[in-house]
UniProtKB/TrEMBL annotation, chain A:
Entries under PROSITE patterns matching the protein: FERRITIN_LIKE
Subunit structure: Oligomer of 12 light (L) chains and 12 heavy (H) chains; L and H chains are disulfide-linked. The functional molecule forms a roughly spherical shell with a diameter of 12 nm and contains a central cavity into which the insoluble ferric iron core is deposited.
Record GO biological process: intracellular iron ion homeostasis; iron ion transport
Transmembrane segments: none
Annotated source species: Drosophila rhopaloa (Fruit fly)
EC assignment: 1.16.3.1
Protein name: Ferritin
UniProtKB/TrEMBL annotation, chain B:
Residues engaged in binding Fe cation: E152, Q190
Originating organism: Drosophila rhopaloa (Fruit fly)
Entry GO CC: cytoplasm
Family per similarity comment: Belongs to the ferritin family.
Biological process annotations from GO: intracellular iron ion homeostasis; iron ion transport
Pfam families from the UniProt entry: Ferritin
Record domain Ferritin-like diiron: where: 48-208
Function comment: Stores iron in a soluble, non-toxic, readily available form. Important for iron homeostasis. Iron is taken up in the ferrous form and deposited as ferric hydroxides after oxidation.
CDD domains on file: Euk_Ferritin
Protein name: Ferritin
InterPro entries: Ferritin, Ferritin-like, Ferritin-like_diiron, Ferritin-like_SF, Ferritin_CS, Ferritin_DPS_dom
Molecular functions per Gene Ontology: ferric iron binding; ferrous iron binding
Residues making up the signal peptide according to the UniProt record: 1-19
Record key words, sorted: Iron, Iron storage, Metal-binding, Signal
Length: 205, 227
């Protein structure tokens, strides 16, 4: 009787081992002491990622507008498409940073929402450059706020703050200067020449 | 005499009507040049063939591609966590995300090349569009391949829909240029991706028919990294 029970038990174990088609693997328990990012900073990062994606979307809409045949400003369009790619890249680099710090083992599905855009048409190239500059200012401010959150007491995220300052602010500041320069030149060209100024400026972009 | 005047008037009116259709741009130029100022935003446009008919479909398809590019970005992120640690899967999905984003820009260029516009906010209901409700991306390896395969089929179905709208319409609405573009830039590439993912899913499922599939999944990820 004992033998029979033992055989049945063994059979059950074997059947279990070979019968199930197992797709999800166990996650082994390892120490989490190395994961030291704090909630406020993580939340700020998640917010910044969405900001970058929003900016990318807005730039796509600008690129699409200046690609129209009735607008026909290929220089502007290319400039904005390039900016859209860059902003998306910025967003995805921040995502990678979070993964590097041991984050994003959960809560990935709602990290990015598909945005909408505030504006899809512009009166001229100058107003679009103005909007682009405003957009960059908004992103820069948001990064500064994120830096403040992440370096505040009691826990200073030195490495992230350094990365945000050295890489992100660096790009933002140069980007803002570039846009401000372009906008100034374009406005000068348009004072008396209007459409001709914009036409010529477009070809230099 | 009265009859003659009436006839002449009729003839000239109908010739204007004809000009409106076939010489839209020229008649606009004539009108603008006859008036003292040109105040309109545009005088001519690039629209011809079935662009009116296919434009909303292409718009829906652009939005679909963009939505999928974010889905894939998150799927790649899921496999990039230290707990998942599957660089091969990450590479696969990051690649698909980048492709969808670049394809969106290419489609924007195509539709504007044809005199169309893009609307990023309105979601036109069409077989070319996809739901913006995101799938849960926290799935296991085999499941993710299934998810990606379904996604790719949806995108291929969307492109096929745009294509059939462009080809199977009444004469005036037919748009061979757009159909050709979709065929050349999308359909065959999509067939390739669908086939590849189906192959991956079937391979991985076979490799996982063992009591503990961890090593199979690890090796398959190694393989994906080299692709």
């Amino acid at each position: 009787m004992v033998k029979l029970i033992a055989t049945l038990f063994l059979l059950a174990v074997v059947a279990q081992a070979y019968g199930d088609f197992k797709c999800s693997l166990e996650v082994p328990e390892i120490t989490k002491d190395w994961i030291d990012m704090k909630d406020g900073c993580i939340k700020g990062m998640r917010h910044q990622i969405q900001e970058e994606i929003n900016a990318s979307y807005q730039y796509l809409a600008m690129g699409a507008y200046f690609s129209r045949d009735t607008v026909n400003r290929p220089g502007f369009a290319e400039h904005f498409f390039k900016a859209a790619k860059e902003e998306r890249e910025h967003g995805s680099k921040l995502v990678e940073y979070l993964s590097m710090r041991g984050q994003l083992t959960e809560g990935v599905s709602d990290l990015i929402n598909v945005p909408t855009v505030a504006k899809q048409e512009w009166t001229d190239g100058a107003s679009a450059l103005q909007d682009a500059l405003d957009l960059e200012i908004k992103v820069t401010r948001s990064i500064r706020k994120l830096i403040q959150t992440c370096e505040s007491k009691p826990y200073n995220h030195y490495h992230l703050v350094d990365y945000l300052t050295g890489v992100y602010l660096e790009e933002q500041l140069h980007g803002q200067r570039d846009l401000a320069g372009k906008l100034t030149t374009l406005k000068k060209m348009m004072v008396t020449q209007g459409e001709l100024g914009e036409f010529l400026f477009d070809k230099t972009l | 005499m009265k009859l003659f005047v009436a006839l002449a008037l009729f003839a000239s009116l109908s010739s204007i009507a004809l000009a409106k259709d076939e010489e839209y741009c020229q008649s606009n130029v004539v009108t603008a040049c006859a008036s003292s100022t040109f105040s309109g935003n545009s005088i001519c446009n690039a629209r011809f063939a079935g662009i009116d008919h296919v434009e909303p479909e292409v718009q829906a398809y652009i939005n679909a591609q963009l939505t999928k590019s974010y889905d894939y970005l998150l799927l790649a992120t899921h496999f990039n966590s230290y707990q998942k640690n599957r660089p091969g899967f990450q590479k696969l999905y990051q690649g698909l995300s980048d492709r969808s984003f670049d394809d969106s820009i290419a489609l924007i260029k195509q539709v504007t090349r044809r005199g169309g516009i893009v609307d990023f906010n309105t979601r036109h209901e069409s077989p070319a569009s996809v739901s913006t409700k995101r799938n849960i991306v926290e799935v296991d390896e085999l499941h993710s391949l299934a998810l990606a395969l379904d996604n790719e089929k949806q995108l291929a179905t969307g492109a096929t829909h745009v294509h059939s709208r462009a080809t199977h319409a009444t004469d005036a609405d037919r748009d061979p240029e757009l159909a050709h573009y979709i065929e050349e830039k999308f359909l065959s590439k999509q067939a390739e991706t669908v086939r590849k993912l189906s192959g991956y899913a079937n391979d991985l499922a076979k490799l996982m028919k063992v009591p503990d599939p961890s090593l199979s999944v690890y090796l398959f990820d190694e393989y994906l990294q080299k692709q």
